[in-house]
């Protein structure tokens, strides 16, 4: 594969603009006990510069996330008895997606069978742009043929364990995925040329067709719950602004995510670094990156 090192510059904002100029993100995330994932993803999408973020959440959890999210719109959706998104929410979600630039799908959704049925339906029926992570990847791993039916542009963001499940039972385990990362992503995007693949971990890889980007930022302190949710929102928000392609948004997202983690670790240390530290440092990371020459 051809290695790509260049990253796109952050554009300057023009004076005569409004929130609609910078895109809308629909986040579909969260379940009982996992509202934090939904909030981290939504806030990261806003911090990336997106003009408007809407969080679709199981209706009984709406009050919880609405209390946490001052700047994010929330949409209570039909839920299962276990307080996860229900298949009955599909029509509402399709309608909302038609008014947004990017849908971020997966963080904290759970492995409820009805929710997995919803995820697979959305993967087959949504158009536009999709960032797929976490439980949405786990649902896809059970029906991998659905990936070839996806109509939308799609970015997948698995960690090694999720990548192992996505590759199927013939693969060994996440340790083997880590030991042959370039081979794994090369095989996957060759088989699925419409997919932009983000394989998270040390020196996160972003692959598309015959191009490969290896991230140069990040540190071991980022091996903490919730940091992947921040990345999902960041990529979705960058992509929604429509100045970057999917591949550009993915590789810039992983770079800025790692840069924020590096900057935050100088304050907290690596041992104490948590996902909200990365999230809260995103403004400094974007500001520093925006000032880079060239």
How large, in whole angstroms, is the Cα Rg?
A: 18 Å
For CATH, the homologous superfamily is named as: Ribokinase
- What is the tally of helical segments? 11
Strand order of the largest sheet: 1-10-9-8-7-6-5-2-3-4
Low-confidence parts lasting 5 or more residues at pLDDT below 50?
none
The largest sheet, given as strand count, sense and whether it forms a barrel, is: 10 strands, mixed
Structural class of the helix and strand makeup?
alpha/beta
Total E-strand runs: 10
- Classify the helix fraction into a percent range: 40-55%
H and E order? EEHEHEHEHEHEHHHEEEHHH
Short note summarizing the structure:
With 294 residues, this protein is of the alpha/beta class. It has one domain: 3-Layer(aba) Sandwich (UDP-N-acetylmuramoyl-L-alanine:D-glutamate ligase), CATH 3.40.1190.20.
Structural overview:
It is a single chain. The model has no long low-confidence stretch (mean pLDDT 95). This protein has a ten-stranded mixed beta sheet with strand order 1-10-9-8-7-6-5-2-3-4, with helices on both faces. The protein has a single domain (21-289), classed as Ribokinase (UDP-N-acetylmuramoyl-L-alanine:D-glutamate ligase, 3-Layer(aba) Sandwich). The chain is built from eleven helices and ten strands. With 294 residues, the chain is an alpha/beta fold. Helix content is 44%, strand content 15%.
